[in-house]
Specification:
Number of strands: 7
Number of domains: 1
Number of helices: 7
CATH topology: Rossmann fold
Radius of gyration: 16 Å
Structural class: alpha/beta
CATH superfamily: Vaccinia Virus protein VP39
CATH class: Alpha Beta
CATH architecture: 3-Layer(aba) Sandwich
Strand content: 15-25%
């Protein structure tokens, strides 16, 4: 079931990859661009002293790549080869060194306790089994590491939450994203601790810092 869902979601992202940035242009020029910049300020404040490893899980077309710090080894993954192709172009354009790999966040090919920092931005709306994905991030995170997230999720308000449930099929079948994920509950089910939680747009868009 999950395998079939993985394939469907991947095919949708492969389909929209060449125009994905155009679809999100207005959003990126608005608040999302500011939120993204603030996210990487948060990353900078949590960088380890000396050498370290950072994972961006769900790099997409690479919109975060221009913000990558140069002081840490960076790996970025995505399960869509065509989204990765866009990310590779962006890395070359902005002159950033990053190891880009095709990989499923639900089945990470990394050893336990491998990364000091893990970053996600608008990723867990698309993971077929988000709890499995969060558990994998926990597994590969150092014991004193941090997961820093910019994620949208289902509203706590019942009327708005109902509307998000009702219209979820539009985004899901267009490009594979769910707008009604209960990410805070999923984080707790994955045995991750919320160190910091900032509401950016009501309680729908949040910046989160997680730990083991």
């Amino acid at each position: 079931m999950v395998k079939n869902e993985n394939q469907k979601i991947k095919e949708r992202y492969n389909r929209v990859a060449p125009i994905y940035d155009k679809l999100e242009y207005m959003m990126e020029k608005g608040k999302m661009g500011d939120w993204r910049e603030n996210l990487w300020d948060k990353v900078a404040n949590n960088l380890p002293v000396g050498e370290g490893k950072l994972l961006e899980a769900g790099v997409g077309t690479g919109k975060n790549i221009p913000y990558y710090p140069s002081s840490i080894e960076i790996t970025a993954i995505d399960f869509s080869e065509k989204m990765l192709a866009q990310a590779r172009k962006r890395a070359v354009e902005v002159g950033k060194e990053v190891k880009l790999m095709k990989m499923d966040i639900q089945h990470l090919d990394f050893p336990d306790n491998h990364f000091d920092i893990i970053v996600t931005s608008c990723v867990f709306c698309s993971v077929p089994d988000p709890i499995a994905g969060l558990k994998e991030l926990r597994r590969v995170l150092q014991d004193d590491g941090r997961i820093i997230m910019l994620e949208h999720m289902k509203a706590g308000s019942k009327p708005l939450g109902f509307l998000m449930d009702a219209f979820n099929w539009v985004s899901l079948y267009t490009w594979g994203a769910n707008i009604n994920r209960e990410t805070i509950n999923n984080i707790k089910k994955a045995d991750l601790k919320i160190v910091e939680e900032n509401n950016l747009w009501s309680d729908i868009v949040k910046e989160l810092v997680l730990a083991k």
